[in-house]
Design a protein that fits this description.
The chain is an alpha+beta fold. Helices cover 40% and strands 26% of the residues. It has a domain of 108 residues: Apc35880, domain 1 (Alpha-Beta Plaits), CATH 3.30.70. Helix 4 runs antiparallel to helix 5. The chain is elongated.
């Protein structure tokens, strides 16, 4: 594989925005109860409208009550374009509840499927046909492979927000240090490590839903990872086991971790009064 391009092919799908808010409880509690109720009802109606594009459509905006000191609310948005994400941001900012919400952190990315296995097959097929790298024929072979993959994996590229109880989100990079540099490792070695890494995740597939998003050129880290489960302890077990895997133990760098508890929109009013 050393004679082939080192970059694995990827498929991209839904545009994704994570928003992490601190809520101004002091200012909120200073309002009369009737005013709080009016604002809460307005916010719930707006979020309910954003939740699904149609009555029977997939969940595309979800709210989570955040645990810990990093914030109070997490909003997760999946849309079909960056323009639609920006529109969601603007719509939220117009509501009266937004006056009590301080955006402490956000993350912009796009759902990504890495294709190490099929990349190798695609490059080998193009080479076997005698196509020069990056020639029109080579590029056509690659594009045809990507189109087939995008159709076969449409449900993974355009997911609904899973309706599980807990969310764990964290960003990550691959090391680019002087001694350990993921991007200097030969393709075949990276393919092997990613295959072994993926086997761990598959063992947890019945209890954890994972969505990987790519953010190179979009945000400060290279990938975002969303994990969804009914039991938050499984996040600890999965991530801890992966730390012993070569691709994580040697080449992974992790950002902050954020943990949220699903907050159905219809329960937002109770949350604003201190009840889950």
């Amino acid at each position: 594989m050393s004679e082939f391009p080192p970059v694995p092919l990827t498929l991209e799908g839904a545009s994704t925005l994570h928003q992490f808010f601190r809520f101004d409880w002091k200012a909120w509690k200073a309002l009369p109860a009737a005013e709080r109720g009016r604002i809460a009802a307005d916010a719930a109606a707006a979020l309910k409208k954003m939740e699904r594009a149609s009555a029977d459509g997939p969940v595309q905006t979800a709210v989570f009550s955040q645990l810990g000191h990093k914030g109070d609310l997490i909003l997760l948005h999946f849309r079909d374009s960056m323009e639609a994400l920006n529109q969601a941001e603007l719509e939220l900012a117009q509501g009266p509840l937004f006056d009590f919400m301080e955006l402490r952190h956000s993350y912009v990315s796009v759902v990504e499927l890495g294709l190490y296995e099929s990349t190798r097959k695609t490059y080998e097929a193009a080479a076997a046909k005698g196509f020069a790298q990056h020639s029109a024929e080579w590029n056509a072979e690659v594009e045809a492979s990507l189109r087939r993959g995008a159709e076969a994996m449409k449900s993974r590229l355009w997911p609904a927000v899973p309706e599980t109880k807990y969310l764990c989100f964290y960003p990550m990079d691959r090391k680019r240090g002087e001694e350990k540099n993921w991007y200097a490792v030969p393709f075949a070695e990276r393919q092997r490590m990613m295959h072994e890494h993926g086997l761990i995740g598959r063992r947890y597939g019945d209890v954890v839903k994972q969505i990987i998003t790519g953010s190179i050129g979009m945000d400060d880290w290279e990938w975002g990872v969303d994990l969804f489960a009914e039991d938050p302890v499984v996040f600890k077990k999965l991530i801890y086991e992966m730390r012993f895997d070569e691709v994580s133990a040697v080449y992974a760098l992790f950002g902050q971790f954020f943990l949220g508890l699903r907050l159905p929109v219809e329960k937002l009013g109770g949350w604003l009064e201190g009840r889950l």
